[in-house]
Prior knowledge:
Elements: H1 11-22, E1 30-40, E2 44-50, E3 61-67, E4 84-94, E5 99-111, H2 114-130, E6 148-153, H3 158-170, E7 174-179, H4 187-198, E8 205-209, H5 224-231, E9 237-240, H6 249-253, E10 256-258, H7 261-266, H8 272-311, H9 313-378, H10 380-385, E11 390-393, E12 396-397, E13 409-413, E14 418-422
Amino acid sequence: MIFNEKKAYTVGEISSILKSCFENPAFQNVPVYGEVYSIRLGKFSYIDLGDHGEKETSAPLLRCAFSTFYGNDYGLKDVKVGDIILITGSLSYYPHGSSITLWGKSLEILSSQTGKTLLEKKKTLEKLDKLGYLDEKRKRKIPPLCKRVAILTAKDGAAYQDILKTLHDRFPVSTTLYPITVQGEKAASSIVKALNRANEKDYDAIILGRGGGSKSDLSCFDDEKVALAIATSKAPVITCIGHTIDVAIADRVSDKRAITPTEGASCINPTMEEVLQKKRLLEEGILDAYQGVLKNAYLNLDHLCKQFESHSPKNRLYQEKEKIQTLEANFKRFYTHHLSSQKESLESLKKMLIQGMGNIQEKERAKIKEMNSLLDALDPSSLSKKGYALLYKNGEKVYSSSQLGKDDEVVITYVDGRKKAVIK
């Protein structure tokens, strides 16, 4: 092997040279500004910083790191993807991986992306509202029993395992995973492509989710293209992106919103216990309905039997007999009442008759007494007792002296006898 006259360096020597260069004091307090492409918070927080507006995959990115072990968070919680920030820190070179890192000592937000993001989100929502995709009436119900379900999430994420476990613990269902990128610049296009692929087949429902994250991590779910793909999906879509503070646009247009992947999977199919409970309820309902039908049939039969009995000759005879008995009882009651009334009338008439006869008898007795008095007064014997005598001539009573002549023979009647005499 022939070498150039110039010295050849080993990889280790080059790494040492680069490391010593970055240890130069000129690189210890370097101010760098740029756009936040991604951010990850933790004990060590990392920000990928790039030039503003350079979205190409080949655009250079600078890894910035912050150590928060001593309680200084450098205002990292206020940083969002898309913000323009200024970081002052020390550059360092790591031989393993040949990476350059800017260890931040201070951070300043030069231009916040939050306002821009909210404005873009508002415009997207207005557009979707005009298209009718935000109307709750448009949302479709998840089929009560799904046989095939598409899952759109990160292949190696915990969300996928949570969804699978929940689905298969509830009721047997066939699932197909469509791996997607759930954050970063490529996430939106990855979701749209996966949704389009899923809609090429016949699925009963689609689950789109991830295991939560910061607002910046979930920005892809506010993307207009993602929202349109969800709204126009052939199968109903369940979103479960794990964010409770702010509702993503994807949640607004999806057919069903869940908070966590487990909750989203719980929207698919009932549990076996729920199926058995529903089976028991259906059996009880069928039994109740059957008993109700039997009861109604029995009541109808009883009603028909009573109608038949009411129209039967025997029952008619019985009814006529009852009528006759009623008439007989009424007649007896009327006859008894009439006899009693007539008896009372007769008793009253009898009393009136007796009273009238008594009155008449009294009057007649008074008349007889009066007549007796008159007779007694006119009785000759009574006159005789008073010294009067009756004079008869030839058997006839003499009333006047003119009836008598000389030598007429007369009979004088006294009380105690008669005497003859001659008129002189």
